[in-house]
Amino acid sequence: MSEINEQFKQSQQNMLVFIWKNRKLIIGLSVLGFVVSLVISLLLTPIFRSTAIVFPTATSTVSFSEQRNAKASSMDFGESEQAEQMVQILQSASIRDKIVSEFDLYKHYEIKDNDPNKHYKLGKKFGDNFVFARTRYGSISIDVFDKDPEKAAAMANRIVDLIDTVKNEMIQQRTSEAYKIAQRKRDMLQMELNTISNQIDSLANIGVMNIDARAGLYQALVDAKNPGEKSEIKQKLQINEKDGALYDKLEHFRREKIAAYELFMAIYEQTESDAHTHLNHKFIVERAVVPDKKDKPKRLVVVLLGTLGTALFSVFALLVRDKIRELKQIA
Question: Residue 314 domain-assigned?
C-alpha cells in the first residue's frame, strides 16, 4: 500500500514539474483561449426568456347534480392530476401547430421550405425554446426563449390563451357525441309519451274515464230520475267497462314515462352543458411580460469554460507530445 502511495506522490510531483516547465506555453495558449472565448461570447445571439404562470382548475364541467362534490367546484384550484393533464395539453401538437402557424416559426427559425428535415428541425427548436413544467407550488410555468423579447412574451401569452381553446375542443369532440345520443334518447321518450297521451285522448273522446270518474258513474246511475238519463249513463258504463282497463293501463304507462322523462332531462341538461359550454380551465397567476434582460448566453461562464478548457487541453496535448517523443527515442 505504501508503494502505491509513493508512486502516486511521485506522479503528482512529475506532473507539477511538467506543468512548471511548460508554463509559458500553457499560459500563452490559455490567454489565446480566453481571447477566442471572449470574442465568441460577444458574437453569440442573446436569448430572452418570457414566463407566464397558470394554475389548472379543479373541474372541466358545470355540474347540475344536487350531490355535487365540493372538490369539483369551478372556484377550486386543481391538484397534481390536473397539473399533469395541463402539461400534456401544453406539449400537444394542437398548441404547437397553432403557435407555429400564427407566428410563422419556420421563417422565424430560418428553416427552409424545401429542407427535407424541416419538421424535425422545427420540433427540435420548439422543444428547446418552449418549456412547460410544474412548479413546487403546483402551478405551471410557461417559459418561452427567443432572440426577440417582444415575440417571446407574445408567444407565451398566446399559449396561455390557447389552453382553454384546445381543451374545450378536446372535451367537445367527446361530449358532442354524448349529446347527440342524449338528444335521440330524449326524442324517443318524448315520442313514446306523445303516443300514449294520444291513445288516452282517443279513449277520452269516446267517453272513457279514469277510475275515479268511473266510480261516480255507478252512483249517478242510482241517482238518475228519468229513463233517458239512465240510458245515457248505462251507455257510458258499457264503454268504460269495455275500455276502462286499457285506459288505466295507459295512464300507468304515462306516469312511468313522465317520471323517466323528468329523470332523463337532468342527464340531458348535463350533456347539453358539456357539449356547448366553453369553460375557463385555468387561473392566470402571471402573464408574460417583455423581458428587458437576456437570459443566455452567460458570457462569464462561456469565457471561464473556454479558458479552462484550453488550459486543460494544452496540458493534455503537451503530455501526448512528450510521450510520442519518448516512444520515438525508444524506437
Answer: no
pLDDT given for residue 69 in this prediction: 47
- Enter the pTM of the model: 0.63
Q: Among 306, 312, 309, which residue's Cα sits nearest to residue 36?
A: 306
What is the distance between the alpha carbons of residues 83 and 68, in angstroms, rounded to a whole number?
A: 22
> Which domain range does residue 246 map to?
181-276
Number of structural domains (the chain) is 1
Considering the domain boundaries, does residue 230 fall inside one? Answer: yes
Contact status, residue 274 vs residue 171, Cβ threshold 8 Å:
yes
Does residue 159 belong to any structural domain of this protein?
no
Cβ-contact 265, 187 below 8 angstroms: no
Q: Which residue has the higher pLDDT, 45 or 255?
A: 255
Size (the chain), residues: 331
pLDDT at 156: 93
Tell me how many degrees the CA angle 146-151-157 measures, rounded to the nearest 5: 105
Cα separation of 86 and 282, whole Å? 9
Nearest 5 degrees, angle CA 3-CA 8-CA 11?
Answer: 125
- The CA-to-CA distance between both ends of the chain, in Å, stands at 34
Q: Residue 145: what pLDDT?
A: 92
Grid cell listed for 257: 314515462
How do residues 78-110 score in pLDDT, each as one tens digit?
567 778 888 888 888 889 999 999 999 999 888
pLDDT tens for 207-240 read 777 777 766 666 666 666 677 666 666 676 677 7
- 81 lies in some domain: no
Per-residue CA distances from 266 to 59, 104, 168, 197, 260 (Å): 19, 46, 22, 22, 10
